[in-house]
Specification:
Number of domains: 1
Shape: globular
CATH class: Alpha Beta
Number of helices: 9
Order of helices and strands: HEHEHEHHEHEEHEHEEEH
Helix content: 40-55%
Distance between the termini: 65 Å
CATH superfamily: Glycosidases
Largest sheet: 8 strands, parallel, barrel
Structural class: alpha/beta
Strand order of the largest sheet: 1-2-3-4-5-6-7-8
Length: 295
């Protein structure tokens, strides 16, 4: 019985094996690339009497080479020659601001065409027009039109490393803000990346707020619209009642881990004293952030 059963199954096994080989041979198996690690970096602010070059050297001595530097221009952006003189080959998250109607009128077309045409082609440039417009009295319709106008100029450079990045406030995604983020969204063709400024608002209640609680709306929105996302500004004051410097160092590590876990493209720390003192003066916080950048 055992012998006859084995003989009866043999043709079926051979046929099945042949069929499987045929099917597998017709398939092209493509490995899914792993998500790129986030770029971690920050701002470079001059201390009194310090040039930007001196500030840059101080920051790199403290943290090593940053993966990204956050640059702000109150008007049109500086030339790439001047930017490279400041940050060398470090990728930038850069914002600039011009009157929306002046943009759509073509006043800046020549200079911005040149700016886009001379941007680096071997590293990403996350460029943003008028970051945090929610806090300003900008006309929303004009703002969106200016975005689309600038993006068309950027497309002419045919540089895939130019990544148009809308930068809004995390607060805007909170229902209590009464805002609608789409009021500033120029559409999926004009905006490649969504970025937000997301600070530790837990200082008001003497806690280091969990990164998930801070960033969950950002992650949810990016998934819904199918866009990469980043954090253009984040920071926390040191909170004595919540562990002080050691607590902030732990919060930095958790924040970076959450950004990486959820596939963020970048996160740049606002290492400055504007409004609140977010500077990482203490050794635990500096050490934590240096390790995050260097890893």
């Amino acid at each position: 019985m055992r012998e006859s059963r084995s003989r009866a199954w043999t043709p079926s096994i051979v046929a099945l094996t042949s069929l499987l080989a045929l099917v597998m041979g017709s398939l092209t198996v493509t490995a899914t690339p792993a998500a790129a690690a986030p770029r971690f970096g920050g701002t470079v602010f001059e201390r009194p009497g310090e040039t930007y070059a001196q500030a840059y050297q101080r920051v790199t001595r403290t943290y090593g080479n940053l993966d990204a530097i956050r640059l702000f221009f109150p008007g049109a952006p500086s030339s790439w020659r001047k930017i490279r003189a400041k940050v060398h080959k470090t990728p930038v998250v850069v914002s600039f601001r011009m009157d929306p109607q002046a943009v759509t009128s073509g006043r800046y077309d020549r200079s911005m065409r040149r700016w886009f045409a001379t941007a680096p082609t071997n590293r990403p440039t996350y460029w943003s027009y008028w970051h945090e417009p929610e806090n300003d009295s900008v006309n929303k319709t004009s703002y969106r039109r200016a975005w689309r106008h600038l993006d068309k100029l950027a497309d002419q450079a045919k540089n895939r490393q130019l990544k148009s990045t809308l930068i809004l406030m995390c607060w805007t995604l909170d229902r209590a803000s009464g805002r609608n983020w789409r009021s500033y969204y120029a559409g999926p063709r004009a905006i490649r990346v969504l970025a937000f400024d997301c600070y530790n608002t837990g200082r008001k209640s003497n806690v280091y707020k969990r990164p998930k609680a801070i960033l969950k709306n950002v992650v949810r929105l990016a998934r819904r619209v199918g866009k990469p996302w980043g954090i253009a500004e984040f920071g926390s004051t040191s909170i004595p009642a919540a562990g002080g410097h050691a607590g902030r160092a732990r919060w930095l590590r958790n924040y970076a881990s959450y950004v990486q876990l959820k596939g963020g493209a970048f996160a740049t720390y606002f290492d400055s004293h504007v409004g609140y003192d977010y500077r990482l003066h203490d050794r635990p916080s500096r050490t934590a952030w240096r390790k995050i950048i260097q890893r």
